[in-house]
Amino acid sequence: MSTPAFSGGGGLFTGFTQLCKGLAVVLVGGHIVVQLLPLAVTYLALIPARTIPFAWNLLTAGYIEQTTYGAAISIFALLFIGKLLEPIWGSKEFVKFILVVNFLTYVCVFITAIAFYYATRLEIYLYMPISGFHGVLSGFLVGIKQIIPDQELSVFGIAKIKAKWLPSIMILLSVTASFFLADSAAYLPMIIFGTYMSWIYLRYLQRRSETNFRGDPSDEFAFATFFPEFLRPVVNPISTIFHRMFCGRSDISNEGNGYDLGGIPLPGSDSIEASRRRERGARALEERLATERLVGATTVDGQHIDASEEV
């Protein structure tokens, strides 16, 4: 199924949810605060050397954009991706996803900065103020990969890519850009850890309302699917090791949730639920696009046309 998703239309700037608008206000407010009171960065951004006792930095850093272009990109992406994900997940789960992914991302960034300092003895890793919504935005792309993996999205009307490759392309572009940008340490760790932490959450922790089970064990959402086909034989053994290290207990706990003791899905429990999720995601996207096209069709050459007459 192909559709000109996110490529334009009369309703492109409509349909934003109230929750996403509220979160956008939070991002705008955080940006204004650090612009008017630069000292606030010391207390709100993540500065690894000061995280103890300022542990709240692990929560607040994700909502503080230090640059205007960073704030603009984050707000734009939040509004447009949020109006796709929130109706499917529900407002409560959408907020939970943001809070969990943001927190876990900055915990990983904190640990990485400390490790880099001990490896290099460069104090920049301890005192660089790190903040931004990049980790959650990367996580949103993983959510799109899960819901509509085979949906073709138009990129500026030039090319089409499948949604399942969005997280991988984002990481590839970010890593490539890091070789040419001096401040790559200010955004690259958040993008990488945001992608991985969101996959961990959606794969093992997110409670599915339709079954009341946790996670998404489908083969189409395995860690290896983030990589091209020729790399998967190398990635699969590595991902299996980490799966057993960090998520082995979840396999046992899933015995009564459609899985046997080895963590293998019982017949039908995997593919059916994954298929239902993708169908709901594709249906929600199609309905939203149809609504936007209808809104756009109500105005032709500046003259309002009754939508009911159009139908």
Automatic annotation (TrEMBL):
It is a multi-pass membrane protein. InterPro entries: Rhomboid-like_sf, TMEM115/Pdh1/Rbl19. The chain crosses the membrane at residues 23-47, 67-85, 97-118, 124-144, 165-181, 187-205. Keywords: Membrane, Transmembrane, Transmembrane helix. The keyword Membrane applies. The keyword 4Fe-4S does not apply. It is found in: Membrane. This is Rhomboid-like protein 19. It comes from Spinacia oleracea. The lineage of its organism: Eukaryota, Viridiplantae, Streptophyta, Embryophyta, Tracheophyta.
